[in-house]
Queue: 4 jobs
Job 1
Amino acid sequence: MSPRWFELLDPVTRARLKFHAVGENTAFGYWSSEGSAQTWPMVFDISFLRVDRAELATQVCTLVKMQDFANAAALLLQDTDDFAPTIAPLSECHRIAERLLANDPELLACDVMQALEFGPVADYFALRGSAPTFFSGLGLLKLGVQPGQPLIEVGCGVGHFLNWLTTRGITALGTDSVFSKLCLASRYMAVKPNLLLCAVSGKKTPLPIETFQPSNVFCHDVFYFIDDKPSAIADFRRLAGLAGNIMVGHAHLATADHGIVSGYPLSIDAYRQIALKEACFFDDAALASIDLTGARLQPKIAETAEAISFIEGELAAGNSRWWNFANEVLFAPIHLTWSHIDRLTTMNWPSQAFAQEYQSSDYLVSTENPFEYLPFQGNSESLPLHPGLAVAAPFFALGVKPLRWGIIGGGWIAADYFVPAFQFCPHAQLVAVCDIKNERLNAFSHIAGLQLFSELREMLVACRLDAVYIATPNCFHAEIFEAVAAYGIRILSEKPLATNQADLDKIRACTVSSPEFFQTAFDQRYHPAHVQLARRLAGGVLGTVTQVRMHYACWLDDGWSKVSATENWRIDPHRAGGGAGFDLLPHCLDLMLMLTDDAVAAAHLFYQRRIHNYSTVLGVDDGAVMTVMTQKGVLVSMHVGYNCPENQPRRRIEILGTHGRVEAHNTMGQDAGGELVWQIQGHESREIFPDGLAAGPFVRQLDTLSRQWIRGDLPRFPIQRDIDLAECLVRCDSQATDILGLQGVHS
């Protein structure tokens, strides 16, 4: 059962163990050794060898031999460590065990931790991938791991570091004293369960492992919980061998206040007496910055240090590819304090416990943009766990119970942009897609666990949805609003909300009782360049804004469709309400009002029917221009079109003020990227924004709305505002279509 580089030992006799499988489920069985009547269970491929729980091990082995796996697992899930404030009822443990046995896809890590009464530690595990202690652990691994050697992590918890190591080619075994944590590591952190061991360290009894080659031993953010530290270090040396390394990280210092989770901290001198004389000691807070900011590590330990780290063995040479983890870290603080002069960013942590750690940590260092709006340093496809935290490695937030989403309308915008966004948003779970056309539903058939429906009410009844995204032709929005709102489900609807006043009245009626449940899919609000624009304009960087000009266009000819020209509903006046105007102007109008923090005082709309055949055959526009006077007196012109060649500049915003001007190039549209060019009082500067799907407005929109709805926050953009915006467009359209005498253009 064990890899060749280690063998499991009887924790009492130290004899080698032999495994006995039970029944057809090879994830369950028991261990025995010659000359001992004591047996030790293996449940879910995790070996339970806690020497201080021999009686429990016997009980569980009896149940395993009877193939009563649910009760066997429940007993182990109920067991915990000496620091746990409460113990979960056995009935809850049994319920979780049965769901684990059934591989219940709806069982979330946060559900497990809540049912097993993890308490405050659940929040820590949920956010550990963004905590300073995690970054300091990565720094310690960078300095201490010998890449050619396997690694044993003592006190691995739910497996954050094991995930990081094993996905980078490091063979690793994890041990922890709490069986339920190892279950989480196996199920949610993709750690191989037969490389997980439930055992204790530092209680005068060595870990029940024998190694056959030099090994790395890693113990991070756990060592201060071990009472008998000299015995634990001696055991670490046995496991590492003469040529192995020992890495102890985030060991609490007795001189700092650690609250109720202080464990058994020591002074720096006491830790030095435990370690070898040639051991290298570090201020643990300094390790959080290594390889992230390029800062050089200083050996001096600050007087205010909260914890220390040390390495026994040869420091690593730094030639392993996984050490360069700065290329795989996504930075995006929840809230930040940002100084343009000092270019420093500090994080406000989501709880006071986090705030107490590393209050002077400087591993978040800004570039020309605040990290809140330019979050990527390195690989833009790194998986953000919260676009709101600094995140290392592709960890899902264990404490997040995601919003259950359904999609109504499976066209290209849903398939190419909205569905892919879910892989970057753990606050959102895609449950179902509904479309009347089987060929569109088939495009989603490869997504495991996704339910597909051709009838809307069937989906609403069957799926217990929290939210839906409406991406159908515009003419169906109102009736879908009425159907979905009747179930109390939140709605994110594509724009325009409707194309006539009657439908807008129906939508308004749906939103009266719970307006916070409704949002328009103006994804351009979430593009980092536009958020940065709004922030700096609000700060007065351009002085008083006087004019805004927008050009948002593309080439959409008669044959534009993935099926046929007749399937392109955007040029169907009955389904779309119009052409380029109804399709593109809502984005421009919404974005202009967001950037200027203003409202419409007067507006006029002119249509163009000039290039494409459908503009005359179907009577829809292939170009439009809207002029606006805002309530603050800003003059605005917005040009849109389906008749602009793709190789021409076609996505541009220009804003003029009394102190200068700014241009946004290639920021409008479904994709990320683009740049801002500022010309302020004779000085020009540029801001480049990251591209890639993970940095795009759809990801930010989905994550922001999901987190907002989970928390019950009021939306920044009330649905009443968006209904008023749609009414403005409908009024302008009715006035424009009254004048038909102009050749080629009617206004």
Note: Residues 524-736 form a domain with the Dihydrodipicolinate Reductase; domain 2 fold (CATH 3.30.360.10).
Job 2
Amino acid sequence: MAVNAAPSGEAPAGRWAGRWVPWSVIGLWLALTVFMGPLSGKLSSVTTDSAADTLPASAESTKVAVLEDSLPGGDDNTFVFVYHRTGGITDADRATVERHFNTLAKQYPPKVEAPAGEGDEGLRTTPSADGKAMMFILDVGKNHGEPEALVGPLRDAAKDRPAGLELDVTGPAAVDGDMDAVFDGIDLQVLLTTIVVVTLLLIITYRSPVLWLIPLVAVGAAALTSMATVYLLVKGFGIVVNDQNSALLTILVFGVGTDYALLLIARYREALHHHENVRVAMVHALRGAAPAIVASAATVIAGLLCLLVADLNSTSGLGPIGAAGILCALVAMLTLFPAMLVVLGRRIFWPAIPRFSTAVEEKPGLWVRLGAAIGRRRWVAALGSLGVLGVLTIGLTGNTGALREQDQFVSAPESVTGFTVLRQHFPELGGQPMTIFTRPAHQERVLAVVKSTPGVAAAMPGQTSGGWADISVFPTDAPDTAAEYDTIKRVRTAVHAVSGAEAIVGGPSAENLDTEATAGRDEKLVIPLVLVVVLIVLGLLLRAVVAPLVLMATVIVSFAAAFGGSVFVFDTILGFKGVDYSVPLLAFLFLVALGVDYNIFLASRAREETVRLGTGEGMLKALSATGGVITSAGLVLAATFAVLTTLPLVMLIELGFLVAFGVLLDALLVRSVLVPALTLLIGRRMWWPSRLSRPVEQPDGQRPLAGDEEPALRR
């Protein structure tokens, strides 16, 4: 055969892949980018961390937050100023505190002043029983700005004080302000860090001075398009996007998009050895890679959309946001990216340019040797892998308790240390204030009931407006502790018993209590739904029952091991004081949906090879063919999620580390060793009930071949 003879079917493919097609695709993407680019920059303008927007829709604390936003003065920012001196408060200190209070109260008045005689207890300065501290509460109207803009000037305004008199500005608004400061500029930080990480990994992977840039450009276009799409979704459908979800959108698009690029480049490089025309080679590469890529994207999108059933707004909002990002990445990597590769031709692979040749020498490499070792010791490989995963799951016996809001910061800000000081000198005001709304006619009865509730240090009436009266309640226990949560539950039970009061209880700690409870319910609903949906997608792709069940089982075991290993790191090494309520569900979703990706890439190639070689040889061939690219994809995806560990918030560090560790565990152990070993042990029954699972009669009529001896099957 002549060296440049085209394989069967090349002519039709060549006619389809006309010279004008790649340029048209690039032109369409340029136009789309010009249109969507300005919209992507507006995404930050519609992100929100408002309690009313992000809290569970049905929670009692959400109703309080909505009322606070709607009533005049109800949404005032509450700051607590705690002055303290080790040797005891002096007369000069007292005068300073009084002066600061009078000045700030005039400069930052609440929207609505409390009626005379109501709430005075919360306005004057208060000395501590030990004589070493003084405090006052300052309610600042929202018309003066958001907490992030207020907390700095308020701290600066109180700098003029005697030497040795320390001040901590704390309270719910100060905590919100410090939390907002953490997220300030986080999108740009995540984007730039992710670009740097992906660039370095692509350069290392391809060792080419130019090739790394093409996936980066295509993924960048997908990221811009996804941000613009999410902005349009928010404007059109009112989807909730918080800063956390916005950062996760960037991570998902870059991580998944780069994975798709790696898989397509691997197939394209193979095709270039068999087809002289680069457009024809790309058509064949797409035919081989696109089904697995589409199935992978469908799995992730389906899993993300399962979040829509969650009651927690911030969780349910991530569903369509993430799905839009994955869809944009899919379209970009199957249209723009191939078009750019075709236009640039073979030279884009320089210096390792794949040459056209009908005979391509396959050299035994690491993955061939690994496959041979697994084939010889399949029981050892399977049991050894399960043993490693089992040991890691022991970590789940560590501290998996809920992380308090004040423990979210890597370095405790002033608002957090201030709560410690407040509790030290004012133990009766140790918790965050609760807010109770009740009908004005029942305010006195509700107030009396609250004051008599165990765990309540103080309760004082507030303003009355819009048909509601509010009461501020201070629990005795530290914020976000089990004891404080028990007090909130007792207060709710007590006020709900007041007939006609229509009383509801909210506040920062009540919001956290409701959020954790809702997250627990969401886990019980979303996790089974994700498993069912992903299992269906796998079944449709592989046209089997056993293989999807085996793959799902390995992913679940892998998640448990990753979670256990991560908890050990969080608890023993990093010293975190719990696991954020949102981490288990989000990590499960990402690791199941993304972890199944690698099994999809492997299993779909194995099924393709099984048609020619039989189950055992087909799996080993698939392992050798996809081992390098899937490992590279796993490293890239793990590195993109690891970007989250550079941020100063414990929740994002936990999520980033857990997903990165889980992806590496899945790519390097589960997909590389456990799945091939199980496939070899199960044999052709892996594909039951498809035709690939049935014994094949030999042409001479002798008995059916046993095990994996079946000859190649025709589709």
Note: The chain has a mean pLDDT of 82.
Job 3
Amino acid sequence: MNAHSGRRIALLGIILETNAFAPPTTEADFRTLCYLEGDAMLAEARKTAPAMPLEVPGFMRSMERFGPWTPVPVIVTAAEPGGPIDHAFFTRVMAEMRERLKAAAPLDAVYIVNHGAMTSTEEHDPDGALYQMVREVVGPGVPVVATVDLHANISERMVDSVDALISYRTNPHVDQAERGAEAAEALDWMLKGGKARSAFIRLPITPASVTLLTAAGPYADMIAEGQRRMTPDILNVSVVGGFVFSDTPKNGIAVIVTARGDKAKAQALALELARGGWKDRQRFIKTLTPLDEAVRLSVETGSDRSRPAVIYSDAGDNPGGGGRGNTTWLLSALHRAGARGVLVGVFIDPELAAEAHRLGKGAAFRAVFNRSGETEFSKRFAATATVKALSDGQCIGRRGIYAGRSIDLGPVAALGLDGVTVVVGTRRKQCADPIQFECLGLDIANARTVVVKSRGHFRAGFDEFFRPEQVYEVDTAGLTSPVLDRIPFRHLPRPVFPLDKGAGWQEPAWATNPAGA
């Protein structure tokens, strides 16, 4: 392709899911996972196993179908879910993006890839600030499309600053590339003269993420109904579940419908979907498996191979939601009860992983988890352990959200603690792919209980071993506990369901007077 042929489309994004109760996310966190500028973005996107959000290569592949175009790579950076982004770093990246966008003029369109649930150490809506900055630079006539995670928290500023906002439709998230492709299709339509008109409704429902699966349940029904109601007049329907732990005034399930030219049609469908979700709100309450019940089941399962194996979500400590991956409630309880045939992963403790590597395979020692310091949730736990296997933690995901993506766990070790084997890693990442055990030679099929520090993405990775009825979400304490009344929220738009059982919803003013085309 001629370097200056066809449409000039800028690509950029900052990706972070913020847990307001976790330590701040720093520049080092972004540069460790993904920080790409200019042509390095394009080179990464063309790799077989890219270490970047899959929306970008999905977008680029799709754009190729629509004729000559010139990608204008700006910056894309991402960090593992964590605390608010350091505001100084955020402003520096924004300034660099602004200058690169200005220097790239004229542009025909912009594609923004981001999570949508980011906060900074100084503001609640840096995603909106990013969108607004892009719009200010390129002006009102340049199409701008953004894709977001279905755990995004949507602000009016986000919707108003772009022509279309497209969210994932699967949880576990296995459609990132498809949504990038959809963004390309939307931009192609707009570049051919199409005019997008959007309607946005945010409901006072801030559910725990365990209720936002898309195979079944109230959220799945909202998404399915939105897709069923797609017509040639509707460009996109996004039902965005939100991420309650961001603790912002813009939290709440959001419905965004984008129509091809007729805003009234977008409003009518958005209102219908929102009414259905509000009517169904009681279904967004989830009962977890108590810790003692989970331990009892594991002991019984380990002593009776005629019983089906089980997999547990250590729900209170999901690194994929900002958890630190180092709580010991479930691990210590299983060890204390003498459970057998248990695999636990991935416990994040760089010091312990390094010690295991120094000692070597076969070494026996006193393993102290969280020796570098305890917090409210990350208590110390010690047990006699044997180093069963070691790995550099470099692998390629094979299923679910990590399929085909490079994964870097840092040095990892498999430690045997009697009937429990723990995978101890260095770099924080939720356990959502069997490769995170298999890279150490561990046999998942032979395990009686598997414990994963993941909220729900493990379902798409481990479903070859466990049917839905073998999956349990365990009530453990931590930064991602789905029991929301334990969390000291300060900024949610109260009253809000399910925290406030009597919360009400007032329909938008335009419900009785929809806009024209």
Note: The longest strand covers residues 381-391.
Job 4
Amino acid sequence: MVIRKRSWIQFLLIISTLILLSYLMSFLRVRVDLTEDRRYTLSQVTNNILRNVKNDIYIQVYLDGEMPVPLKRLKRSVREMLDEFRIASSRKIDYEFINPAGIRDAAQREAHFKALYDKGLNPVNIMADDTEGGSTRKVVFPGMIVNYNGIEVPVNFLKNNSSLSYEQNILSSIESLEYEMIQTISTLSSDTVYKVAFIEGHGEIPEIEVADITFNLARFFTIDRGVPGGRPGILDDYAAIIIAGPEKEFSEADKFVIDQYIMNGGRVLWLFEEVDVNADSLVYGRTAALYRPLNIEDQLFRYGARVNPSVIQDLECMIIRLTVMTEGVRQQVVQVPWIYYPLLIPSPAHPVTRHLNRVKGEFTNYIDTVGLDGRIRKSILLYTSAFTRIVQPPFMISLKEAEQVPDEREFNRSNLPVAVLLEGVFPSAFRNRMTTHLHSEKNLDVKNESVPTRMIVAADGDIIRNEVRRAGNTETPLPLGQDKYTGEVFGNRDFIINCMNYLVDDNGLMDLRSRELRLRLLDGARIRKERKKWQLINLAGPVLLVILSGALYGYLRRRLYTKR
């Protein structure tokens, strides 16, 4: 009895010890990422942001229900990333996966779809298996709504780059998940909201034609518009400014204001071209391309870039709808390539443009980087295809050109830069110049050299311009980068948003877009060639392994008991 009682006491002590250890271990979080590309490890920047989140964040992920395997893999990656976010934020982040197509009533389901679209989530049509073994077309919203302090912000994380395969787009989406999520959370939870200004007063693009990008940038910044008016210091409160498609010359006073803003660390997104093309006149069949200087050429030259007054023609271009006329008789509408609307290639080597879709340009110029100042680093963000040529103004542009088959031998230029990032210490455009006549302030400290800063120069103002649908007195801006005829969406909006986020980013958040995961796919050629062999190995291999294990166990057992 004493031995039995002692055994029970030992048993209870062991169980109690295990329970106590399990309870204590629940407070110890040990997470080890054994993957080669560290796909389950959050960056230090992300951890810092999540640790400083003050209030709870609720996230609704609209990626649930029946869907193809690649989207299920994306869903799993989203869930894993949110789990990591939840742990790093001390459980201040909660989330829910929702099937937007799970509503049975068709009218209510369509109303729900419209509500999600109005909130900023982009729908995608997919083919999914149904319960009867067939397939049906379904609508999914691969994105989420982040709720923080009563504010809702949409996040779309599915990439749709037409130049990549379906699997590569899914991989790109997984690679960008951490950035897409933490960028929104950082903006919502930050105590500081950066201010951005659209510069006016030089014939810039009207407000209605930049309405879409203004609305989307408002998710991250406070947006203003205004005229510098030759007043130094008026821009100092802004983290960045946008100069979008000016058509009139800049005064020396306004140039001086912008220059000193840059010298004090200001960031600028320049979008303009130096060839004037009145695209509206093309409704009559022809228009003229004329040289139009803006009096900022010398300023940009000092900073390290020159926009060349030449129009690009590119064989990789937009498709436009054209009504073909034959002897005055109206024919059918046909789709033809329009070489004046190039589809610009984003650089895969920079976080601003990594995984971006092609960017649509219109009557685009190109850029040369100039100067040998080692303190200025220059990175190409957008460039043309390998089949490009340039045309010098003045010249006429006719829609009849679209009916002609271009001679590829004449398109002998390649990869011409269209957008360039400049980073470093810039010399003032007004160095060694008298500036007292440009301002009325007596004690103004004129700087001849900037602090480290950055700017982006794009040789096409139309990159930021959205199309507008007009019906009577009603004007409705269309999504930036969307072709109003085909509905195809290009990368213009993402490019501008990434540019602005990079310009004002001092924490290195944009570097998360450089994350690279390896796509481990099966070799299709070997699958076709060695199909029978691998089927035989997969079917017979496990059976043979069980038989051999049983035989080995029986042999060892007989040998052991035979010796006894």
Note: DSSP finds eleven helices and 25 strands in the chain.
